[in-house]
C-alpha cells in the first residue's frame, strides 16, 4: 500500500497536463493510447490535437477517407496503427452505435487493441481495476522489486502482469495506472535516473543492490534487416510526376511513393542507370538520369534499416497518369519521401 500511495502522491504533484487525462471519454483515451504506442508524448501530442480537431467523434473518424487518416498520421510511423484505428472506428460507429465496449475483456476484441491498451481504456474510462503493463511499468516494477526475469521472454510478461495486478490500487485504478506510467516516464527513466530525489529510494531493492541501470533484464535483441531502395523521380515535360500506391503487406501499406526497385546491395550510379535503361517503361527514352543525392539516406525502422537513393529521370514528353505537385502534396507519403519532396520540389509541403 505504501508503494501505491507514494506513487499516487508523486503523480499528483508532478504529472504533466495532457488533454486525454482530463476526460473519461473512451474515444479520446483510445486515440491517445494507440498514438502513444512506440511514440514519445512530445511527438504524439500534436498528432492527437490534429486528429481530435479533424475527427471530434468516433463517427467523424469512421466516415473519413483512409487517405485523409493516413495523411494526418504521416510522420508518426507504424502505419498499421492508423489503418487499424480507422477500421475499429468504423466498427464502433456502425456496428456498436458509437458505444465503446466497457470491459477489459470486450475491449480486447477490437482490432489493434492489445492487453495494454484494453487495460488503459478499461481503467481510465470505466474505472475497471485492471493493471496496465507497458515499458515504463516493466522498468519501475523490475527495479523496485529487483525482478531479474528476462522481459524479452513471453512467460515474464505473465509474471509482471500478476505483480502489477497485485500492487494496483483497486480503489483508484485509473489514478494508480497513470501514476506508475508517469513515474517511469519522468522519474524512473531508462538511463541514469536521479535516484537521490526519488520518493521510493528508501525501499527500492534495485537501488539497494546497486542494480538500477541493469534492470529490467532484456537479452533478446531485435534483428535488423538492411534494405536498398532506389526511387525513380519520373518527371515529364509539364513538370508532373509518376507516383504509385504501395499495396500488399509490408512497410508503408497504402501510402504513396515514387516508382522503386530494390536491390540486394547498394549499386553505383552507372549501375542504376543501366538498370533503368533496361526497364520496359522507358520506351520513351529519358533525356537524362540524375542522381539527386550523393549520399544514401539511411531511414531506420524498428526491424529494418532502409538505404534510400533518389534518381531523377527527365522526359521531353508528357507521361500518362502523371500528377502535378499540387495534387501530390495532398497524398500520404512515408515521411522520408515527404521530406525529399518538400526539400526538392515545393515549398508548401
Automatic annotation (TrEMBL):
Q: Which cofactor does it need?
A: [4Fe-4S] cluster
Task: Output the lineage of the source organism.
Answer: Bacteria, Pseudomonadati, Bacteroidota, Flavobacteriia, Flavobacteriales
Give yes or no: UniProt keyword Secreted. no
> So what does this thing catalyse?
Hydrolyzes free adenine bases from 7,8-dihydro-8-oxoguanine:adenine mismatched double-stranded DNA, leaving an apurinic site
Q: What is this protein called?
A: Adenine DNA glycosylase
Q: What class of enzyme is it?
A: hydrolase
Tell me which species this is from.
Flavobacterium fragile
Keywords, sorted A to Z: 4Fe-4S, DNA damage, DNA repair, Glycosidase, Hydrolase, Iron, Iron-sulfur, Metal-binding
Cofactor binding description: Binds 1 [4Fe-4S] cluster.
Q: By its UniProt entry, which InterPro entries does this protein fall under? A: A/G_AdeGlyc_MutY, DNA_glycosylase, HhH-GPD_domain, HhH_base_excis_C, HhH_motif, MIG/MutY, MutY_C, NUDIX_hydrolase-like_dom_sf
Pfam families from the entry? HHH, HhH-GPD, NUDIX_4
Family per similarity comment:
Belongs to the Nth/MutY family.
What is this protein's function? Adenine glycosylase active on G-A mispairs. MutY also corrects error-prone DNA synthesis past GO lesions which are due to the oxidatively damaged form of guanine: 7,8-dihydro-8-oxoguanine (8-oxo-dGTP).
What PANTHER family does the annotation carry?
Answer: ADENINE DNA GLYCOSYLASE
Which residue numbers delimit the HhH-GPD domain? 35-186
Alphabetized SUPFAM superfamilies for the sequence: DNA-glycosylase, Nudix
EC number per UniProt: 3.2.2.31
Amino acid at each position: 500500500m505504501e508503494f501505491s500511495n507514494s506513487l499516487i502522491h508523486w503523480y499528483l504533484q508532478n504529472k504533466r497536463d495532457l488533454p486525454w487525462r482530463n476526460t473519461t471519454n473512451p474515444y479520446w483515451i483510445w486515440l491517445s493510447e494507440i498514438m502513444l504506442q512506440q511514440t514519445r508524448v512530445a511527438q504524439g501530442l500534436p498528432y492527437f490535437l490534429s486528429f481530435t480537431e479533424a475527427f471530434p467523434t468516433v463517427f467523424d473518424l469512421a466516415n473519413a477517407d483512409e487517405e485523409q487518416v493516413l495523411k494526418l498520421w504521416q510522420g508518426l510511423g507504424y502505419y498499421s496503427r492508423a489503418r487499424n484505428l480507422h477500421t475499429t472506428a468504423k466498427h464502433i460507429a456502425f456496428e456498436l452505435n458509437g458505444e465503446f465496449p466497457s470491459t477489459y475483456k470486450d475491449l480486447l476484441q477490437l482490432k489493434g487493441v492489445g492487453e495494454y491498451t484494453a487495460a488503459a481504456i478499461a481503467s481510465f474510462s470505466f474505472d475497471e481495476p485492471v493493471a496496465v503493463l507497458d515499458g515504463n511499468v516493466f522498468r519501475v516494477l523490475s527495479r523496485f522489486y529487483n525482478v531479474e526475469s528476462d522481459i524479452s521472454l513471453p512467460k515474464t510478461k505473465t509474471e509482471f502482469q500478476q505483480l502489477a495486478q497485485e500492487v494496483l490500487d483497486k480503489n483508484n485504478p485509473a489514478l494508480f495506472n497513470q501514476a506508475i506510467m508517469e513515474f517511469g516516464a519522468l522519474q524512473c527513466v531508462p538511463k541514469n535516473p536521479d535516484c537521490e530525489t526519488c520518493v521510493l529510494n528508501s525501499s527500492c531493492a534495485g537501488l539497494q543492490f546497486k542494480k538500477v541501470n541493469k534492470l529490467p533484464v532484456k537479452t533478446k535483441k531485435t534483428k535488423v534487416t538492411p534494405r536498398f531502395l532506389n526511387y525513380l523521380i519520373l518527371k515529364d515535360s509539364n513538370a508532373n510526376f509518376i507516383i504509385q500506391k504501395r499495396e500488399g503487406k509490408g512497410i508503408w501499406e497504402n501510402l504513396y511513393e515514387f516508382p522503386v526497385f530494390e536491390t540486394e546491395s547498394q549499386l553505383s550510379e552507372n549501375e542504376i542507370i543501366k538498370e533503368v535503361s533496361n526497364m520496359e517503361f522507358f520506351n520513351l527514352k529519358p533525356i537524362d538520369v540524375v542522381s539527386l543525392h550523393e549520399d544514401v539516406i539511411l531511414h531506420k525502422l524498428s526491424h529494418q534499416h532502409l538505404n534510400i537513393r533518389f534518381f531523377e529521370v527527365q522526359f521531353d514528353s508528357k507521361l500518362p497518369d502523371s500528377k502535378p505537385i499540387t495534387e501530390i502534396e495532398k497524398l500520404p507519403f512515408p515521411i522520408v519521401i515527404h521530406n525529399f519532396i518538400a526539400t526538392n520540389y515545393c515549398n508548401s509541403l
